[in-house]
Amino acid sequence: MRYSGLKVITEGLFGNKGWTPAWRDPAPKAEYDVIIIGGGGHGLSTAYYLAKNHGITNVAVLEKGYLGGGNVGRNTTIVRANYFLPGNSEFYSHSMKLWEGLESELNYNVMHSQRGLINLFHSDGQRDAFVRRGNAMINQGDDAILLDRDGVREMLPYLDFDNTRFPIYGGLLHPRGGSARHDAVAWGYARGADQRGVDLIQNCEVTGIDIENGVVRGVQTTRGAMRAKKVGIVVAGRSSQVAAMAGMRLPIESHILQAFVTEGLKPVIHHVISFGMGHFYISQSDKGGLVFGGDLDFYASYAARGNLPMVEHVMEAGMTLMPMIGRAKVLRSWGGIMDMSPDGSPVIDKTHIDGLFIDCGWNYGGFKAVPASGWCMAHLMATGEPHEVARKFRLDRFATGHLLDEEGTGSQHNLH
Amino acid sequence: MRLTCPLCGERDRREFYYYGAEDYLHRPAEGAPLAEWDNYLHLRDNPAGVTKDLWYHEAGCSQWLLVTRNTVTHEVLGAEMVAGRAK
Ligand SMILES: Cc1cc2nc3c(=O)[nH]c(=O)nc-3n(C[C@H](O)[C@H](O)[C@H](O)COP(=O)(O)OP(=O)(O)OC[C@H]3O[C@@H](n4cnc5c(N)ncnc54)[C@H](O)[C@@H]3O)c2cc1C
Ligand SMILES: [Zn+2]
């Protein structure tokens, strides 16, 4: 079924009786050409592009819970292409271009909103670093505008500009940055993949990976064994457990990241604002809730909830930056399990097992990567060659010293 | 979350700095093969369940602690001082 404005109106007039489920609920088959483990944003987009770009449609996505129940439905939805290092820069630029056509591509309203992202700076040194980053973004073909203090004041008059510790000197505006509706991105890719013949199998946990003589043969699951010629591990925070089924030890440590939303308010924050020095960022959803968050809780964790010290820290940082939010009531907080890599950059690569591929290490920036990650993972699995914009996301770069440490914080997993 | 420091007793999580997994205690010898450095710096078991990791009692006695805890429940099961441990 194609969605359209006309369809919404006619269905509204006739009692909304004509809608059908957005995807099937198929029983698992005994054999597939490709099995993708993990029904998050990256697994679903990989399946979609395998079918769409490469004509590989005998594909299953195996999800242990429900589609979109992992990080893809728990993030704070910032979409940006403001990376600096060659390797990251071209990848996120490619992703941004895919975002810009995503709604018509998927025939699904993912509510992608390019409302502009502003990164604040508070010292001359930080301004110099942002000028350099802005130039890298422009060189990549993306957009960046340096705002001085008055420029920021014009757009965000409600900030505390004269804060003693972090007076606001200006900001780097990335006009094409913004946000999107996270669930809709998962659902849009799921529906698109299903329409092209991909089986989306929920409540199906992979419990083992079958390997014979160094070649992958299939997987064991809570819904039975399935054979496959190729298998992709795309499970974000659970990467270490699933890779261990193939005897691998990954450069990943899983950490908890929390986020918060307030009651719905009238429009007040029109951009995405990031206050790096305070580890705080905020935007307002289309429903009106202020969506905000901060840094990791900092210790390895698989609990999808955090501890109070980080809650307190985030609230304090918010009050420091924009005292007006003290009037808003927080409705909910939650957490997600982040696959932190030692350089803060991801992996899209083959493994030492023939036919087994892995996509992981998204840290807390994998939502904006959903389109390009699926695009590049599908390319790798279909052709056996890395896609040009993802060729630096190698699994062996840690051993060989070719790290992509965007923030220059060293090889400690929780510092990225 | 609260950690029990062998010297200071049960203290708030905020007094401690988290470094990483126990692997950091096994620094390779100078001139060790690169694979050993990769193992030490980057690769992790990253268990969902009981783990051992290193915490520094920054706002307390300044001791490095090897903490045993559960990464799924956040339960803290014990802590010992790194200094003076039998290697
Ligand atoms: C609070 C928070 C805020 C964030 N904010 C942003 C942001 O503003 N911008 C941004 O770009 N990124 C952000 N992120 C990061 C982003 O959400 C993740 O990097 C990204 O969603 C991870 O990829 P995914 O969608 O495929 O993961 P997930 O949705 O977690 O998908 C992985 C799936 O694998 C499944 N799985 C695991 N093990 C198995 C198994 N054995 N068998 C079968 N299935 C299995 C899981 O159930 C899960 O559904 C944020 C994350 C969090 C938690
Ligand atoms: Zn102490």
Structure notes:
The complex is a heterodimer of chains A (about 425) and B (about 90). With about 425 residues, chain A is an alpha/beta fold. Chain A contains eleven helices and 18 strands. Chain A is about 30% helix and about 25% strand. Chain B is mainly beta and about 90 residues long. Chain B has a single domain, classed as Folate-binding fold, CATH 3.30.2270. Chain B has one helix at about 35-40; strands spanning about 1-5, 10, 15-20, 50-55, 65-70, 75-80. Chains A and B meet through helix 8 and strand 15 of A and strand 3, helix 1 and strand 4 of B. The complex binds flavin-adenine dinucleotide (FAD) and zinc ion. The site of flavin-adenine dinucleotide (FAD) has 38 residues of chain A, from helix 2 and strand 12.
Give a quick set of tags describing it.
heterodimer; A: 416 residues; alpha/beta; eight-stranded mixed β-sheet; 11 helices; 28% helix; globular; B: 87 residues; mainly beta; Folate-binding fold; four-stranded antiparallel β-sheet; two-stranded antiparallel ribbon; 1 helix; 6 strands; 9% helix; binds flavin-adenine dinucleotide; binds zinc ion
